[in-house]
Write a structure and sequence with these properties.
The protein starts with 9 loop residues before the first strand and ends in a 7-residue tail after the last strand. It has one domain. About 20% of the residues lie in helices and about 15% in strands. It is an alpha+beta fold. Helix 1 packs across helix 2. The strands form three sheets. The protein has a two-stranded antiparallel sheet with strand order 1-6. It has a two-stranded antiparallel sheet with strand order 2-3. A two-stranded antiparallel ribbon has the order 4-5. The mean pLDDT is about 95. Strand 4 and strand 5 form a beta hairpin. It has three helices and six strands, in the order βααββββαβ. The structure holds iron/sulfur cluster (2 copies). The site of one iron/sulfur cluster (SF4) has 12 residues, from loops.
């Protein structure tokens, strides 16, 4: 996935506005992510799948359930209940993937990279 509106030599630090957990969209979870999150929540994988995932509209993969207002089922106020083990898609935004216009909806701030650091 390509990157947009990025300055050179910085990484963007999340300000925990929670917007990316609220806008409509899918958060896919792989087998490894399911295993990781279920372990963190101390529940069997089958129970995690039943309680927290759904099949996406295209019926091609499992995604985290969205509440009727579109927010992620793991959003608790401005906190993520599974922050320590959140899916790669969540961890990768906005430095490893983003979309045109992302800075209008994301409050992450640019911070200079240390020598040798990668975003
Ligand atoms: S939209 Fe940006 S600043 Fe807000 S929670 Fe997501 S990554 Fe962090
Ligand atoms: S898993 Fe956590 S970080 Fe990812 S969308 Fe849900 S609440 Fe946000």
């Amino acid at each position: 996935m390509s990157l947009h509106d990025m300055k050179e030599g910085v990484r963007y630090v999340c300000q925990r506005c929670g917007n990316c957990c609220r806008w409509p969209g899918e958060v896919p979870v792989s087998k490894a992510e399911i295993q990781r999150i279920a372990t963190y929540l101390e529940m069997p994988e089958s129970e995690f799948i039943a309680q927290y995932t759904e099949v996406n509209v295209q019926r091609t993969r499992l995604t985290l359930i969205s509440r009727p207002n579109h927010e992620c089922i793991f959003l608790d106020g401005i906190d993520c209940r599974i922050q320590a083990v959140k899916p790669d898609q969540c961890a990768g935004f906005p430095n490893r993937w983003n979309f045109p216009g992302w800075r209008e909806v994301c409050e992450a701030v640019p911070v200079p990279l240390a020598p040798g650091e990668v975003p």
